[in-house]
Amino acid sequence: MTKGFFNVPTPVNEPVKNYSPGSPERSYLKEAISVAYSQQADIPMYIGGEEVRTGNKLAIRPPHNHQFVLGHFHQGDKTHVKQAIDAALAAKAGWENLAWEQRAAIFLKAADLIAGPYRYKLNAATMLGQSKNAYQAEIDSACELIDFLRFNVKYMTDIYAQQPVSSKGTWNRLEQRPLEGFIFALTPFNFTAIAGNLPTAPALMGNVVVWKPANTQVYAASVIMEVLKEAGLPDGVINLIYVSGPDAGEIIFQHPDFAGIHFTGSTAVFQNIWKTIGNSIHKYKTYPRIVGETGGKDYIFVHGSANLKVANTALVRGAFEYQGQKCSAASRAYVAKSIWPELKKLLVCDLASLKVGPVEDFRNFINAVIDEKSFDKLAAAIDQAKADPGVEIIAGGKYDKSKGYFIDPTILVTQDPSSVTMCEEIFGPVLTLYVYDDEKLDETIELLDKTSIYALTGAIIASDRYVIEKLTTALRNSAGNFYINDKCTGAVVGQQPFGGARGSGTNDKAGSMINLLRWVSPRTIKETLDPATDYRYSFHEDD
Predict the structure, then answer these.
(1) What is the residue-wise DSSP string for 457-506?
(2) Burial of 276 (C-beta count, 10 Å sphere; 0-12/13-18/19+)
């Protein structure tokens, strides 16, 4: 294999459009939003080469305007899960035997389609279906998904180029085979890019996929499928179904050809899936690959040497962008007592300036949480905090679901560093903050490390280099993505591969070669060019 054989364009991160007033992209996006509102989408499942409409239609409603119906999607049942598996397995031989360049071309074209003609349609679907503002949609459904597709092609070629040494008279090769069977991609509501990456990453490596998105992300998922079909993805390679979790699990995890799951979602669901797979392990042709990114109780630790404006910005952006519904969002903070009075003033001032409302008004920083279930859970947590004499609400605390599921960005200051909102994942615009004594730094570091079962993201804000080194070392197992003098969100493909350990997942680093290696099964091939013709070795000969 020559070096040139693996030459592909070196990917660069997709530039972010700013959607400032008067910009062309602002006009294009507003037009796409208007079109989406007027269309009344009728969204089928995609199984094999068929658009499947069951007639059992569920409404899609913007979380920020839940009285309006954007359209409907057709819900399936267990029979459609079986059909999707059969379609995937029927497509398997042709897809895995297709030259890697041909597979790469499809996903590179998909990236260009999203960067070009589909950018505003996909962003609008994400904004309306998942209540993301224009900037949050842009960095997610456009830039990050484009980056996943382009960087994964580069990582694939790097994997294939890794070949063993050959000694004289032999030729050693490493073949990276797709897994035997099909992959199940189970994707979340909060990131369109994740919903796109989880099925396409295994498919790029030659696997076939059954993809089930969250119901609250179906609108944008259907646009991704539209892009993939236009890019030339063959029928049956990725099959998009809308079924209940129990219906999908009952069929998929009992199937002998189940070869792996690519998952992002809650820790409880992932642990239950792992148990189910374990109990059925004797039924499978091969040991399934279990790859998952789950919950987080992500932190920001503010040292007494911190720059106050840096700390304030990291807390506001890290906790409240996309309503705190990022897996990486800051939901607990530890602030040194010596700087708390001044930092508190900055936080209260900034939170008072945050505008809350629908995504169509680009001035709104905060939009709605995803659905009523989430809203009710967050409202209950806020009410519980209001009734707790050990908690002070310094900002927010209001909520209203009369028109949309709006929760004001809320900061709780607790006297108990082991309180419920410091330990358990809430997944919304609620930040719990604990003020620690400066002289108890070591004790607080240990407290932080042991408080939560999760280890997804974390950030430290400090100017003292000795302290930075101390925290970086002491907290090495507390977060898979660790940030110094920055917020704990915003991982960029190719720059900060994403994933955590402990209760936060298998840490297989989406957006890196590490993840793609999970979707292949290597075969070592040795070819002897001048094979032996006599069993005897020279040491048998007489002196």
Answers:
(1) EEEEE-S-HHHHHHHHHHTTTS-SEEEESS-S----TTTS-B--EETTB-
(2) middle
Are residues 223 and 535 in contact, defined by beta-carbon separation less than 8 angstroms?
A: no
Burial class (CB in 10 A: 0-12, 13-18, 19+), 346: middle
What confidence score (pLDDT) does residue 5 get?
54
Single-letter residue type at 482: F
The pLDDT assigned to 6 comes to 61
Amino acid, single-letter form, for residue 45: M
Q: What is the CA radius of gyration of the chain?
A: 25
The pLDDT of residue 541 is 72
Chain center to CA of 29: 24
**What are the residue numbers of the active site?**
293, 327
Q: Residue 376 has what DSSP assignment?
A: H
45-47/50-52 β-pairing = antiparallel
- List, run by run, the mean pLDDT of 10-residue segments along the chain (543 residues): 59 96 97 96 97 98 97 98 98 97 97 98 98 98 98 97 95 97 98 98 98 98 98 98 97 98 96 98 98 96 98 98 97 98 98 97 97 98 96 98 98 96 95 98 97 97 98 98 98 96 97 97 96 86 71
The per-residue pLDDT for 3 is: 42
CA 492, 453, 325 angle in degrees (round to 5)?
Answer: 45
**Contact between residue 283 and residue 205 where contact means Cβ atoms under 8 Å apart:** no
Q: Write phi, then psi, for 192 (nearest 5 degrees).
A: -60, -35
Alpha carbon distance, N-terminus to C-terminus of the chain: 44
Which contacts qualify for 277-282: CB closer than 8 Å, 24 or more apart?
A: 277/253, 280/253, 280/254
How many angstroms separate the CA atoms of 43 and 222, rounded? 7
pTM exceeds 0.85, yes or no: yes
pLDDT score, position 246? 95
- Would you call 189 helix, strand, or coil by DSSP? coil
Q: What is the predicted pLDDT for the residue at 36?
A: 96
- Asked if 106 and 77 count as a contact pair (C-beta separation under 8 A), the reply is no
pLDDT in the model for residue 2:
37
Residue with tokens 């993805």: 233
Return d(Cα 110, Cα 103) in angstroms, integer.
11
Dist CA 383 CA 377 (whole Å): 10
Amino acid found at 253: F
Q: How far is CA 378 from CA 368, 371, 430, 499, in A?
A: 12, 11, 8, 25
In order, the DSSP letters of 286-325 are SPPEEEEE----EEEEE-TTS-HHHHHHHHHHHHHGGGG-
pLDDT at 538: 81
